[in-house]
Amino acid sequence: MFGITDDKMEKIYQQMLQINVFLSRKRSKSEIYFFLKPMLLEAQIAAFAITKSHFVKDALISYIRDLQSIKPFVSGKDLIELGLIPSVEFGKILKNCFKKQIEGDFTNKQEAIDYVKNKYLN
């Protein structure tokens, strides 16, 4: 149908169901971001089209309009410049900073860098 394989249709359908279940209750912005990021756009659109839940609709609108295009303020290069040595902790630090950024705890890169300095360098 519409040049979409049966496998892709099944994936869209399964993701649409997952989206509706996950977003059927209030979630934080970062939870919405990290859940929806790997989901197919078609599944997001299908979930929006079929749901009656305002939680689902609001979360999808927020993700598509505001969250999906957010780029992290802090990178691994920034952590190295601060004197941190690359390790498995890098991923945790970066994800933690990005979560805080998504939630609005930082409005710019300097605030995020200051957070890293205070939390991880003192």
Describe this structure in words.
The chain folds into 2 domains: about 5-65, no CATH class; about 75-120, no CATH class. The termini are far apart. About 65% of the residues lie in helices and about 0% in strands. It has about 120 residues and is an all-alpha fold. The model has no long low-confidence stretch (mean pLDDT about 95).
Number of domains: 2
Gross morphology is elongated
Count of distinct strands? 0
The total of helices stands at 7
Binned, the helix content reads 55-70%
Structural class: mainly alpha
Average pLDDT taken over every residue: 95
The ordered H/E elements are HHHHHHH
The first-to-last residue Cα distance is: 58 Å
Biggest sheet character: none
The Cα radius of gyration reads: 18 Å
- Unreliable stretches covering 5 or more consecutive residues: none
Strand content: under 5%
Task: Compile the SSE list and pairings.
Layout: H1 6-22, H2 29-36, H3 41-50, H4 54-67, H5 76-81, H6 89-102, H7 109-120
Helix pairs in contact: 1-3, 2-4, 2-6, 6-7
GO molecular function: metal ion binding; nucleotide binding; nucleotidyltransferase activity; RNA binding
Family: Belongs to the tRNA nucleotidyltransferase/poly(A) polymerase family.
Protein name: CCA-adding enzyme C-terminal domain-containing protein
